[in-house]
């Protein structure tokens, strides 16, 4: 534990936090989501773009919105399309970031809404060893009910569509805190999203909106 530090743990977002928001990956991601929505729902490009914005606002992501609306979309199908084809070479290696992370003595938890495959590819491009983090909270760890037998059981039971857990929902922040394993007041949460930061703050986390970590 770091002596004289007000923090025992740092929760770190990945996208647009560990790497800059202007890599060009964001527009590529939005294009992929729009294409996915067009193909899945048979809507125009304009309608898909409007839906993406609305689903993000109301449900946290297009995937969460589609599932909430009752569409049968497997997360892997969505992620392999919208993330799988991203131009990852737009993320530059960042040796300084790798050194900065190594030098942080507190417990470090990567806390991302993204799926594990995307996380691994982004970290690989950055030159950051996943092992520098003590733990990871990602799409799959927040949503075990959407995979494997748990998913089949939920589908067989019928009823309402499953809820997708993503920041900034309370359940997601609680999942992050559980893995952090520390008092929220002694946990620093870094995320480029103002609404994620607001949600963390509401649950007692100390927060910062970094432009970029280093
Ligand atoms: Mg982010």
From TrEMBL:
- Which InterPro entries does this one have? HAD-like_sf (IPR036412), HAD-SF_hydro_IA (IPR006439), HAD_sf (IPR023214), Pyr-5-nucltdase (IPR010237)
One of the Pfam families matching this protein, by short name: Hydrolase
Question: What residue stretch is flagged as signal peptide?
Answer: none
NCBIfam families this protein is in?
A: HAD-SF-IA-v3 (TIGR01509), Pyr-5-nucltdase (TIGR01993)
Protein name as catalogued: Pyrimidine 5'-nucleotidase
Q: Which organism is it from?
A: Setaria italica
Gene that this sequence comes from: LOC101752970
């Amino acid at each position: 534990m770091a002596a004289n530090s007000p923090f025992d743990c740092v929760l770190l977002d990945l996208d647009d936090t560990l790497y800059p928001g202007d890599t060009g990956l964001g527009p590529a991601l939005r294009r992929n989501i729009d294409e996915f929505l067009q193909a899945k729902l048979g809507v125009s490009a304009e309608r898909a773009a409007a839906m993406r914005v609305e689903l993000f606002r109301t449900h946290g992501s297009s995937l969460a919105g589609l599932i909430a609306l009752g569409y049968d979309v497997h997360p892997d199908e969505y992620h392999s399309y919208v993330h799988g084809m991203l131009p990852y070479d737009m993320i530059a290696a960042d040796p300084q970031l790798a050194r900065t992370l190594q030098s942080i003595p507190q417990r470090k938890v990567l806390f991302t809404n993204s799926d594990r495959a995307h996380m691994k590819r982004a970290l690989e491009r950055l030159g950051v060893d996943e092992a520098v983090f003590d733990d990871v909270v990602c799409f799959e760890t927040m949503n075990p009910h959407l995979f494997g037998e748990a998913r089949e059981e939920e589908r067989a039971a019928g009823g309402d569509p499953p809820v997708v857990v993503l920041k900034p929902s309370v359940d997601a922040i609680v999942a992050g805190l559980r893995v952090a394993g520390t008092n929220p007041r002694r946990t620093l949460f870094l995320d480029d999203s103002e609404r994620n930061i607001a949600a963390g703050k509401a649950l007692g986390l100390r927060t910062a909106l970094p432009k970029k970590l280093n």
